[in-house]
Amino acid sequence: MSTVQLGRPWLAFDLGQEMQVLSWAINRPGFVTASRIIWREVRNADLPEDLDVHGWFARELKSQGETASVAFLTSRDVSRFTQARAQVDSITAHAVATVGLSNAERVGHRIDRRGQEWGTINVALRLNHALSQTGLIEALSIATQARTAAVMDSGFHLPSGLATGTGTDCIAVAAPAGAADYAGLHTEVGEALGAAVYAATSKGANAWVKEYGAGRMVAPCSGPLD
């Protein structure tokens, strides 16, 4: 059974057991085995330009006993996390997300945001269905598609069109190790994980747009990031 634990500046997604996890997270990226996926909330003052971010984050994780966890950095207030569960037949999916759009981008374009705020979308997904590494790769692709659809449906406008994500998004997908190679849109796994990731991301994106507006080019700021 998966649970979410909040203790700012930390947010922890306890997977309930050791699982294979695939991500491009700053701590323990790639194919790893882990029982927790965690977020560390940061502010501008935490990350000066000359900071060795990896070294600093490693020390932060060690202080919390979380060096074995897959770990994200986020500028979103972690208490604003959203989550959603979906079930299709015997497949269950649990998604947890933090969503900020202050450095939103549209795929195929790039905005110069030097000196501006940086937001991010971080999504963690737990599946109860055993997958091979091939299946986990496809699951990650479906989760990314669901994230993108949710951001587009939030209606956040950029000069290049609707935002599809941010420049610093990260997704982690966890599942038991197994032999199943497929997790596409025609499968129960793909349906369940897509529904959970879409719902969690949509809740977060819509809340951010309601708070800040549907078209926001951010000015330089030394305060909190989103």
Structural account:
The chain is α+β, with helices and mostly antiparallel strands. Helices cover 25% and strands 32% of the residues. It contains three helices and twelve strands. The protein has helices spanning 53-63, 133-153, 188-212; strands at residues 3-7, 10-23, 30-41, 70-74, 82-88, 91-99, 104-105, 121-127, 157-158, 161-162, 165-166, 170-175. Strands 1, 2, 3, 4, 5, 6, 8 and 12 form an eight-stranded mixed beta sheet that branches. A two-stranded antiparallel ribbon has the order 7-11. The model is unreliable at 217-225 (pLDDT under 50).
Radius of gyration based on Cα positions: 17 Å
Low-confidence stretches: 217-225
Overall, the morphology is globular
User: Count of DSSP helices?
Assistant: 3
What is the terminal-to-terminal distance?
30 Å
**β-strand amount:** 25-35%
Number of strands: 12
Major sheet details? 8 strands, mixed
Q: What average pLDDT do the residues reach? A: 91
Question: Structural class per helix/strand content?
Answer: alpha+beta
Helix percent reads 25-40%
List SSEs in N-to-C order.
EEEHEEEEEHEEEEH
